[in-house]
Design goal:
Strand content: 15-25%
Number of domains: 3
Distance between the termini: 56 Å
Number of strands: 24
Shape: elongated
CATH architecture of the largest domain: 3-Layer(aba) Sandwich
Structural class: alpha/beta
CATH superfamily of the largest domain: P-loop containing nucleotide triphosphate hydrolases
Strand order of the largest sheet: 13-12-11-5-10-9-6-7-14
CATH class of the largest domain: Alpha Beta
């Protein structure tokens, strides 16, 4: 935008343009009504109040049971009206003089007749294109266009969605002190996934509107609004600046999705009140010609003659002065071009140190506050990160909920803010770790900090998931085989600080210690069936002994008589043991017998009785961290079995690696939850996950739930780690 603060006599300033528009509407009201630019100076006639209709996406499913019985559907809708937000209307209007029932007026500036006349997006001209080369005044045009919409329509009449791949211009509408009240979502981002999800949401809204209108017996939004004059369902307008970038940055799969979504809007937007305005320097490599032909409002600033031809149908825009536009929504001939002088909304301090841009938005914002009206506005900035303290605050508040669901789920993880659009007020990604086979986590990224971050994120979640009951607190077995991560983040140390001690934490750093896991597995696999089958302490003791000697007798049958002779002794020693006195009797017996067979059986009986009272005290929820799993060249069969069936023993495996590795796909089969980051596309391809181009320092991570086919992305919280540096010989110190 032009930064010149001094007044230019050849510039039309927006405040002057707005006054001339109001005079035009008042003085030439009859003409404006005839041109369809105005329905009534007071939009709602003599009504004192109106009701805001929520997006049908939120309630249309309630009509399913009524089928296409329009009378029943209408009765149900009229009953719902009582729950809609009511808006009390003013007696007089100095702004917001129009409704969007029939159209959206696009006021580009002063025309050839020196009038602030409007073009329209409605039934005939549904969508618009804007083209202009760098320095032609495209940003000035877009700001003026948006400012005029904010003045003409109240926020309940228009839902604005803004996407800006330059990340600068549209973010001005999201200032916390005076954000634009018409905006539902603003994406000041080059993050293509967010923009795609934003468009998908609009498509979902559009499809729900189409379904709703059909059930109610209306063919389009204008007819619906005409039947319910006191109920407002706003038109939707998506404005995308530098929209060509959307296609250039998209993968093949994403490009196909864009084409499909936008083609749907092009086809259905007219009836449902959904409109598009796309702005770019040129239109090549974007939508197909057939799709672009539906963008009948063609607007061109100064641009290359070929671009002018593509947009207007003639080459006249090649000679346009800055801040002038041609519009052609007819046959593309030069004689049907309409020329407008675009007003300028100054965004720099004037001689009184005031900024018109900010003051205008502040005035609109304050006006809306007086109506006690607001939208659930979303502003996405890809570089903005919330501090990690925000996560701990959230985890603290939801701790009772996490404990409540522990009987059904292993845990519920809070990950971070969506990288995709969500209409929810709190758009925070969560992940419920289900119980069942193959319910483990695998995290892979070529970015070392991603691996450290995932350890920190999961550690925080598990620590805040710990029950107040000590026997139900998470236990941790950490196999740390990636020294580079420990040089910048110590998982075991962090967990001890979070838990106030380290009684539930074991750490192993030697790959040979992997056998410790096998020992744990053998015991769990042997004991759990006994815990579940036995109904009394004595029955358990006998089953424990008999199954222990079964393999030995199979190999050496001659020992059968000797081993069986111990059964009456065990029966006699434990015949009086009950669940109530087991710990007292068996502890004494264990102390007397020491490491003998009877002593070990006594210890096992104590564990059995604890299990029957509270299974979690014997099989506590345990996280097995395998950081650097890629160093294990050949995964043993017992480990793969354990990985697959871990939840049977209340075990969750977290497998982490810094690169793709030979056994990655083997592990992935038993990991339902994948966390991916970095720029190694091969990892994504091998795991059949969509890869989106990203910067090397991206603050987004991807997560996949394989069983449901969901692919999500979330932002990392702001978290500092030490810097990993490779070892070097200190030549400066040694050689002087």
């Amino acid at each position: 935008m032009d930064s010149t603060a001094a007044r230019d006599k050849n510039t039309i300033y927006h405040e002057e343009f707005l006054l001339s528009t109001l005079k035009y509407i008042i003085n030439d009201r009859k003409k404006a009504e005839e041109n369809g630019e105005l329905k009534a100076m007071v939009p709602y006639g003599k009504m004192k109040e109106i009701f805001q209709c929520p997006e049908p996406l939120l309630f249309v499913s309630e009509f399913n049971a009524l089928g296409n019985n329009k009378n029943q559907c209408r009765r149900l809708f009229e009953e719902k009206k009582e729950k809609f937000q009511m808006i009390r209307l003013p007696n007089e209007y100095d702004i917001w003089w129009n409704t969007s029932q029939d159209r959206i007026n696009i006021r580009l500036g002063i025309d050839n007749n020196n009038q602030p006349s409007a073009m329209a997006l409605g039934d005939t001209t549904v969508h618009g294109l804007i083209a202009g080369q760098t320095g032609s005044g495209k940003s000035v045009l877009l700001h003026s266009l948006i400012f005029n919409l904010l003045a003409e329509y109240p926020p309940w009449e228009l839902d604005l969605y803004l996407a800006d791949f330059k990340r600068v211009e549209f973010s001005k509408y999201m200032d916390e002190a005076h954000s634009a009240p018409h905006v539902v979502a603003c994406a000041a981002t080059g993050e293509i996934r967010y923009v795609l999800s934003l468009i998908q949401h609009i498509v979902d809204c559009m499809n729900a509107r189409e379904d709703f209108f059909k059930r109610m017996g209306y063919e389009k939004i204008a007819k619906f609004r005409d039947s319910y004059p006191d109920i407002v369902l706003p038109r939707i307008l998506l404005i995308v600046d530098e929209f060509q970038q959307l296609f250039l940055d998209a993968s093949t799969k994403e490009n196909e999705l864009i084409q499909r979504m936008l083609t749907a809007i092009v086809k259905k937007g007219r009836a449902t009140g959904v409109h598009l305005i796309f702005a770019s320097q040129e239109m090549s490599q974007t939508l197909s010609r057939s799709a672009l032909s539906n963008f009948r409002m063609r607007i061109a600033l100064n641009c290359d003659s070929n671009v002018s031809m593509d947009v207007l149908g003639n080459r006249e825009a090649a000679n346009l002065e800055k801040n002038y536009v041609y519009v052609n929504n007819t046959d593309g001939s030069a004689q049907n071009n309409r020329k407008f002088h675009v007003p300028f909304a100054n965004d720099r301090p004037d001689e009184n140190n005031s900024i018109y841009f900010d003051e205008y938005l502040e005035g609109i914002s304050k006006r809306v506050e007086s109506f006690n009206y607001s939208k659930n506005t979303k502003f996405y900035q890809e570089d903005f990160q919330e501090p990690l303290t925000k996560l701990t605050e959230i985890l603290g508040k939801i701790r009772p909920y996490k404990e409540k669901i522990r009987s059904e789920y292993f845990d519920a993880l809070t990950l971070g803010r969506y990288v995709t659009f969500s209409p929810l007020k709190y758009d925070i990604q969560t992940l419920f770790i289900e119980r069942g086979r193959n319910r483990n986590i695998m995290s892979i990224s070529s970015n070392l900090e991603d691996i450290c971050y995932m350890q920190k994120l999961l550690a925080l979640n598990f620590s805040y998931g710990d029950s107040d009951k000590p026997q139900n607190a998470f236990h941790h077995m950490i196999f740390s085989f990636m020294p580079a991560t420990e040089s910048v983040y110590r998982l075991d140390k962090d967990l001890r600080e979070m838990q106030g001690g380290g009684n539930n934490i074991q750490v192993f750093r030697n790959p040979e210690d992997f056998s410790r896991l096998q020992e744990k597995f053998k015991r769990l696999r042997f004991m759990l069936p006994l815990y579940q089958e036995a109904e009394s302490p004595l029955a358990f003791a006998l089953m424990n002994y008999e199954r222990n000697i079964a393999e030995e007798i199979r190999r050496r049958p001659e020992l059968k008589k000797e081993r069986k002779a111990c059964i009456p002794i065990i029966t006699e020693r434990l015949k009086d043991v009950t669940f109530e006195n087991a710990e007292e009797i068996c502890s004494k017996l264990s102390a007397e017998e020491g490491k003998t067979v009877m002593g070990k059986i006594a210890e096992n009986v104590i564990e059995f009785c604890k299990y029957k009272k509270d299974a979690g005290s014997v099989l506590p929820p345990t996280v097995i961290w395998l950081v650097g799993i890629d160093i294990i060249e050949r995964l043993p069969d017992w480990f793969l079995y354990m990985l697959k069936n871990g939840m049977d023993y209340n075990l969750l495996f977290v497998c982490m690696a810094g690169t793709d590795f030979d056994s990655m796909m083997q592990i992935a089969k038993s990991c339902d939850y994948l966390f991916l980051g970095g720029k190694n596309k091969r990892i994504y391809d091998r795991l059949a996950v969509n890869f989106t181009s990203r910067e090397s320092d991206s603050i987004a991570l991807d997560t996949v739930i394989k069983s449901s086919g969901e692919e999500r992305s979330f932002k990392k919280y702001r978290c500092s780690f030490g810097k990993h540096e490779s070892a070097r010989i200190p030549f400066e110190d040694i050689l002087g």
